[in-house]
Amino acid sequence: MATSSKPAAPVDPMVVLAHEFPEVSFDYDERDVALYALGVGACGDDAVDEKELHFVYHRDGQPHIKTLPTFVSLFPNKNSNGLGFVDVPGLNFDASLLLHGQQYIEIYRPIPSYASVVNRVKVAGLHDKGKATILELETTTSLKESGEILCMNRSTIYLRGAGGFSDSSRPYSYATYPANQVSRISIPNSAPSAVCDDQTKQSQALLYRLSGDYNPLHSDPDIAQLAGFTRPILHGLCTLGFAARAVIKSFCNGEPTAVKSIFGRFLLHVYPGETLSTEMWLDGQKVHYQTKAKERNRAVLSGYVLLQHIPSSL
User: Fold this and answer.
1) What CATH number is given for 13-175+185-307 in this structure?
2) Domain MaoC-like, which positions (predicted)?
3) Where are the beta strands (DSSP E) in 229-309?
4) Where are the domains of the chain?
5) Residue 175 in contact with residue 136, Cβ under 8 Å?
6) Which of 211, 250, 278, 282 could bridge across to 291 with cysteines, CB 3.0–4.6 Å?
7) Contact of 117 with 144, CB cutoff 8 Å
8) Is 69 helix (H, G, I), strand (E, B) or coil?
9) d(Cα 213, Cα 218) in Å, to the nearest integer?
10) Which residues are tagged catalytic?
11) Which of 121, 120, 54 is nearest to 257 (CA)?
12) Consecutive 10-residue runs of the chain (314 residues): their mean pLDDT?
C-alpha cells in the first residue's frame, strides 16, 4: 500500500487483482509466543493463573509452552513494512485514513511454539464504496519443510477517501468468497453466558508492539493527536487477543487447541489502561462475544469464536 499524503490516481482494480505477492519465509520461537501472550494480557492479573501459565512457562514438565491461536494474527505483518501497510500496486490512498475493519482467522492444526513457515498472500476482495475502498487480503501460512497449512488470516481494510474509481451506478466489487458468510454478527439479547474483565496496562500497546506492529499511532503521542486521539491507542489485534483469551479461559478450560476459527469486527478505539469487559454467549460450538471499554461503556469489538468441541465440564 502506498503511503502518500493523498490519492495520486484512481484505484486500478485490474492492476490490484493482477498483482502477485512474493512468498515470505520466517521463523518464530517460544520467546515470540510468550511475548505475544504477555502482550495480550496472559497472566496479567495473576502470574500463577492455572489456565494461562502454560502460555508463558513450561509448567509441570510440559516440553513446550502452548500457543494462543491469535498469535497467528501477527503473521501478515511479515509481509508489510512493520507499520501494517502491504504494498499493492494500483492502490493510492492517504495512509492516515486507513482503518483495520475486520479480522478472520482459521486454524487448521495446533500452532507449534516454534516453526519455520511461509506466507502466501492474495487479494481476496476489492470493493468500491464511493467514498472508500475496501481491500481484503488473505494470508495463508504453511510449515516450510512439509508444506502443511497451519492457518489463514483474512484482513479487511478500509481505505477512506480512496473510492469512486468505478461507475457510481455500478460500483466495482470483487471477492473470492461470499463475504456475508463471515461478516454477519449476531449478539444475543439474553444475559451473557460468561463475562471476563481484563484491565489493560498503561504500557500495554508498548508491550504488544514488540511482537511486530510498529505503527507509531500506538506509541507516539504526537502521531496519535494528529490522528484525532488524545493519546496513543491500543492495537485492534491486541484487543482481539484479549477477547479470544477470554473465550479460551471461559469455555475451553484454557486449552488453545479447542479453537477452530475466530472473527472480530473493530468498532472503536481502546486506550491503554482501560478495562476490557468481554461478554460471551455460548451457542452450540460457537461463542458470540462483545468487548466493551468498561469505563466508557462503549463496544469496541464484536465477533465470534468457533470451537472444535465444548469441554464436557461445560
Assistant:
1) 3.10.129.10
2) 190-298
3) 259-266, 275-283, 286-293, 298-307
4) 13-175+185-307
5) yes
6) 278
7) yes
8) helix
9) 9
10) 213, 218, 233, 236
11) 54
12) 48 92 95 98 92 91 93 91 74 81 96 97 93 93 96 93 85 78 71 96 97 92 92 97 97 95 96 98 95 97 90 56
